[in-house]
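To assess whether ligand presence alters the predicted conformation, the chain was also submitted together with iron/sulfur cluster. Input:
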Amino acid sequence: MSKLIASAAIRGANILVKHAEEMLESAISKHGESFTFEFPDTAFYLPMIYAMTGFAVKTLGDMKTALENTKSLLHEEPEKDLWKPYLGEALDSGMATLFAEEIILALRYIEGLEPVKDPETGYEYNGFITDTIQRNLGIQLVDGSMPGFAAIIGAAPDDETAVKIVRELQEKNILIFLSGHVNGNSVTKQLLRKNVELGWDTYIVPLGPDTEHTLYALDWSVRASLIFGGKKPADYKGHLKYTKDRVFAFALVLGDLDEIKWTTGAGAINMGYPAVCDTDVPVIHPTGVCTYEHVDKEFDHGKIVQKAIEVRGLKVIVEKPPIPVSFGSAFEGERIRKEDMFIEFGGQRTPAFEWVRMRELDEIEDNKVIIVGKDWEKRFEQGGKMPIGIVIEVAGRKMQKDFESVIERKIHSNINEAQGVWHMGQRDINWIRINHNAKKEGFTLEHIGIIQNVMTHSRFKSIVDKVQTTIYLDEEDVLRVQEEARKSYHERDQRTAGLTDESVDTFYSCLLCQSFAPSHVCVITPERLGLCGAYNWLDGKAAYEIDPTGGNQPISTGETLDSLKGRWSGVDDYLRKASGGAVETMNAYTIMDNPMTSCGCFECIVAIVPEANGVMIVQRGHTAMTPVGMKFSTLAGSVGGGMQTPGFMGIGRNFITSKKFLYADGGLKRIVWMTKNLKDGLKEAFNERAAEEGVPDLLDKIADETIAEDSEKLLEFLTNVGHPALEMEPML
Ligand code: SF4
């Protein structure tokens, strides 16, 4: 290891620990040692300290203890004439730095200094990354739509270069964290000056203006190990191996480095994250702690992203249709405000629909885009609004009618991933906008067709042999074909409504989350979707046809061992193998006896409320207290990581209105508390199901956060309204 880097890392760690000590002393004299603190919306205290040491820092007094312990990781700077391998000392110092930085940032939160608001631009940085955001990103992390994470520290030589680097990362769907500065200038400021949209939706997340704010990204990545990996607090070896093997992060350090950057970098190297700098730094090439090189340099900003990808060993495969704007899931969250809009379609303003229909191979011409409309170019050039009907016709030897809806659901991402083009809704309630910039770049309606053809081929390779897209732009055509489409939507709905667990002999597994939660297996049945809510049985079936060796495998149900609880011999056999022996058996229809495991990206948690003889349901993003005395983040901490936890279970939101929801435990009538968000969002389907169960007014008898946040008040309410759960068989 370079002596220069080791000395700087050791020096930086000493500086930061001292700084943390001074800040802590002043905070204790102001607030006292028993003053409590927690970062917003996390169940993991000060996550880095908690993960590595198992010590839960809850008070200023705890911070003092943690900081004392941190000092044992500090070292003396190597003497001038002493040459030796310093890797161990530098890595120790890096870890001490991360602990000190975590305490410094916590203390800044206490003093109301975080998240930082830039006095110059008024921009408010993200600050600490919550558990909710981490779980929200679960799917992108595992399905390949977000293959890696880049922390950019410092500032590019000029604003244009900053935009170029960030756009390149966005096109590769890499999530970008920004922190640090060089003489007050930073990539965040450079992007703001260039009007680049920042935030989670565009994969560009400015954490804070200082190098220390990089810790928020590292805190986030170590929680992946706690949440998804099921690694225990204090298992520091396990955490470091997990982050190295499963979290594909790296740093781009732009501009000059100081001790704080070097020592934070040494902390990141502990976790397996290398750095590529654009200045003439000593490199660290021997592999070991990181998968490949630890520190490297690249002066050409046109090559620096590629270099970092190689150094981290990241696999990035991005399919880009030939269109004049950028394309990738990082652009999916872009919004188009009215002032930026050039033209829009649908959204109740004009008639519109989108429809995927299966055709015979000889009925369509592959990759053809047909646009039907009188003088459509002229009308398009005027901007404003236009009707639109998009018909995507697909043919293939392995294509099935059931896959139409699966392909149709991807229209949303296909269109949204084009920069400057926005899509919402589906079927005949779709809404599309194109902004002025995209129009200026030469984007036309033909490109919408090209995107559909290319992306349908790319996403559904083995079931689609031919794709042809027709776009209707005259109102009468749109209305006429829309009627045909509506008949087809209706037929499909009828078909899927008839799908029950008993009507099939094959379920599908989803193993995508195993890249983060190695023992977790989602068993997807016609009446139970995956717990992230993103995959249903038809998706599983289509995904298997598309990629027979991929993450969705058929599970032959075999003999039914328990029809009430939902247990099958074939499912048990499969689970034993696919979970690496961690799961022996599973019951799909009960929460009390070997329920399905949870990975961490579940949409909702169901938890038993013993006092009320029922269950409560809380969705991700709900940050208030629940009647079991735990917030979502705390509950999630004990449910995830591929564990079976009787009485607690992660589920997809739509499972609540399935006939098989807690079927063996009494079904819907067991729900005694549910957030208002869930009650409002599921109202129609819920009331229908409740009526089938003979309790049409059940939703009114279920409490929410506006009625009760503790079990006492909950019980009082349930007794007053005569909730059926109080009369049911005891759950325990
Ligand atoms: S269905 Fe299950 S395993 Fe698959 S991505 Fe969703 S939560 Fe993960």
